Amino acid sequence: MALSLTMKALTIDHSAPGHLALTAVADPEPAAHQALVQVHSFSLNSGEVHYVIPGGEAGTVPGWDAAGVVVQAATDGSGPAAGTPVVTVGADGAWAELRAVDTHLIGTAPEGADLGPISTLPVAAGTALRVLHRIGPILGRRILVTGAGGGVGRFTLQLAARGGAHVTAVTSDPAKADALRALGAHEIVTDLAALQHLEPVHGVVELVGGAHMVAAHGALAEHGVLVAAGHIAGDSEQFPHGAFFGSGHHHNRQIATYFLLDDTAGLGADLTWLAALTARGELDPQVALRTDWTQAALAAAELAARRVPGKAVLDVR
Questions:
Q1: Residue-by-residue pLDDT tens, the chain, 317 positions
Q2: Are residues 144 and 44 in the same domain?
Q3: pTM, 2 dp
Q4: Number of domain units in the chain
Q5: 214 is in which domain, residue-wise?
Q6: With 289 labelled, which of 141, 152, 268, 304 sits at a CA distance of 20 to 30 A?
Q7: Is residue 91 part of a domain?
Q8: What is the DSSP string of 150-194?
Q9: Does 276 reside within a domain?
C-alpha cells in the first residue's frame, strides 16, 4: 500500500456503537528507532475490550497486537528491512492501516505465513512465555494455570507442556476439559476446593485473581512461585490467617506480579520464536473468531461476553 496523507483507523468514539468508529486519521510519523508497518491483521485482548474501548480517550487509535509488513525501516538502522513480515506490540496504534513501532517490539514472521494467527501472539503468548521464564526451570516440575481457558491460559498450557512440565489447568467450565487436555493439560480442576488436595506445585500462572489467587497460593510447594498476570475476576484477595506462615511445605513461597509492556527487553526475539512455532503448526493460537475489521465492535462485544472460545482476529482490508 502506498503511503498517503491519511489512513483508515479504528478510533475511540463514545457516541458510536461499541465505542469504535472507522475514520480517516493522519499517518503515523515514525521516530528514528521506529519502523512503519502496514497492518494486515490484529487481535483483540480481554483488557482492551473490558477497559481500553469503554474508557479510552476519544479520537485515539487503540490496539496492542498487530501483524503486517514493514513498509519503511527505522532510520537509525535498527530492526527489520522494508518488505519483512512482522508481528508487533505496543501500548496503542495497532487498529490502523499503518503503525509506527519501536524496533525492539517487533518480531519477524516466516515468509508466506498467515499473519492472522500470528497477530494473536504478542500480549497473550508473550505473557505466557515470560511468566513461565519468571517461574524458572519447568522441566519435570508441576505448573498450575488458573483461567486456563482464556487466551493467555491456552498459550501457557501449550508452552508449559512443551517445556516438560506436568500441567494442571483450572477452569470454571467443565465443558472445556477435553480442549484443555488437547493443549497439554495433564489434570483439570473445576472446583477451587480441590486445589488443597493436589500434590504441591512448583509454579502458578495466575490469571484470575480473587479467590483463585488465594486457593492457588495455597497449592504452592516450598520455594514455589506464583506469578499474577491477570485479574479477570475483578475481586480482591483475602488470604486466611496462616497463609504466609513459613512452616512445613509453605517455606519461602513467592508472589510476583507481571505486565508485559513493562518487560520488553528482548521481546522482539521472543516474538520471532513464537511466530516460527505458530507458522510450523507447533503452537495453536486457537483462533475462534476471524472477520473483517469493520466488524470490530461486534467482535469486541462477543469477546467481552465470553462467547469467543479462543482468540479473535480482525483482518484489515
A1: 455 558 999 999 999 999 999 999 999 999 999 999 999 999 999 999 999 999 999 999 999 999 999 999 999 999 999 999 999 999 999 999 999 999 999 999 999 999 999 999 999 999 999 999 999 999 999 999 999 999 999 999 999 999 999 999 999 999 999 999 999 999 999 999 999 899 999 999 999 999 999 999 999 999 999 999 998 888 899 999 888 887 766 788 999 999 999 999 999 999 999 999 999 999 999 999 999 999 999 999 999 998 999 999 999 98
A2: no
A3: 0.94
A4: 2
A5: 124-260
A6: 268
A7: yes
A8: SHHHHHHHHHHHHTT-EEEEE-S-GGGHHHHHHTT-SEEE--GGG
A9: no
